[in-house]
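HUMAN: Can I see a protein plus its fold?

ASSISTANT:
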Amino acid sequence: MEHRPGLDPAVAEIRRAVRAALAGVDGSVVIGLSGGADSLALTAAVAFEAPKLGIAATAVVIDHGLQSGSDIVATRAVAAAQQLGLEARTVRVTVGGDGGLEAAARDARRTALRDAACTAGARTILLAHTLDDQAETVLIGLARGSGATSLAGMAPLRHDDDLVWLRPLLGVRREATRAACVAQGLPAWHDPHNLDRRFLRVRVRQDVLPVLEDGLGPGVAEALARTAEQLREDAAAFAEMIDETIEDIVEPAEAGIAVSVAALAANPAALRNRIIRHVVHSEFGQSLTRAQTIEVARLVTDWRGQGPIDLPGCRASRRGAVIEFTAAA
């Protein structure tokens, strides 16, 4: 625990979280900076901790151009990062309409950050999601019935090809980032979209979580975050099991891949269903819904001569002792 006279507790908490996250980083990092309290507090902590570890950091502000004056907000965020001693720059992106505004903006932002990391020669990108963001993500996944993978929420560390995405603040409450900005005199921007009830996440933040806290008592957000952590552990264990068994139960098939019926039948439903989803995703790049997965599993557990099942990007059918997944025509 830090013992610095006069050091604000929120500042100390965020610095500790960032220090722990940066401990395993090799090379330089890029910080996704919006100018809001979360990312500004993260940026300030990185500016303090990174030099002590010999890590070069660059703040990248993504200007989505979705609001009037977004260029002014971006300029102020860059200036704040520079005053903290970091290199900083703005990247302007064009947001499409596929999948809704939130998803399209997120995709554009991720692509821009990836490109910025490549330009800076960095292999690590830092994002400022907090414990509150994690709780909201879990609740949204629960409402949509998205399964354990969605309920596992956001991972504090995720490998994506040649990049590492780090979220050092997943154990930090949003109120701490705001307090840290106030304590350090950082000019945090308040995004109007965070109050726009058109967005599901805003409604969850303003309505659902407060009702849960009021009815169930304090600590709901922390409990949801703990649930996500436990489910990530379960998912990692399942993934390891699949990696250990998949090569022994699959074989090439014409225009696709085949999986042993006996091997699928010998596994419990949770592992069997994950193997089915894994095969389809790895071979055809598609994700199956729960209903689609169960229909494929019935070819193993409830075989009555059913015909082929059309799936996203492929077709599943039983051929003797195997389930064949072949590319869609």
The domain at 9-224 is CATH 3.40.50.620 (Rossmann fold). DSSP finds twelve helices and eleven strands in the chain. The chain has two domains: 9-224, 254-327. The first helix runs from residue 9 to 22.
